[in-house]
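Justification of resources, computational component.

The compute hours requested in this renewal are based largely on the per-chain cost of generating structure records like the one below. Each record pairs the submitted sequence with a full structure-token output. That output is archived, and it is also reused by downstream analysis tasks.
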Amino acid sequence: MNCIPVNKRIIIALAATILISSIADARARRKRRRKLPDPASIPSIVIDKRNMTLALISTAGDTIMLTQVATGLNPGQKRRPGDMRTPEGLFSVVEIVDASRWKHDFGDGLGEIDGAYGPAFIRLLTPGHTGIGIHGTHLPASIGTRASEGCIRLHNDSLLRLIPFVYPGTRVSIIPADADIISSLLDRDSIYISPFMP
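The structure output for this chain reads:
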């Protein structure tokens, strides 16, 4: 005959369940955590707004992967939040996060869209700006165009092929197109053009 009262048996069973669950969670986290390779062996990413591509480049200079992307709706260097521009220059990856359950309202009257960012979000360190990253899309027809709010979009399957090569610290170069350079030169915040001839 069992001498442990029913309430204590329930508490012991719950404690055991919690302990087993926490051990399983810790093991799962260890499996998900990737060991960082030698930084000298990590490929870099080049996003070219001239031809709307993302290239993954090995340390030897070989192209490992080349895919189409979408960039910010408006041309030019990013100046302020909400300007719908993709920043240009040299950046680095901060983290890769699961975005499969993220929703977003693009302000187009359709409301929140499930899976708007695809399966993952590669967050970039872009000084002066937050929320910029490389991610998938719910709108594959936008790839190859200027369509985003400033992030770099690519097809979800391309994103999944890219992720195994990307680590925190991965270098990301974003190259402007001619339209970006002209827009930045003509931006009234950066240069004043006199309407009068001397």
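Residues 191-198 have pLDDT under 50 and may be disordered. The two ends are 106 Å apart (CA to CA).
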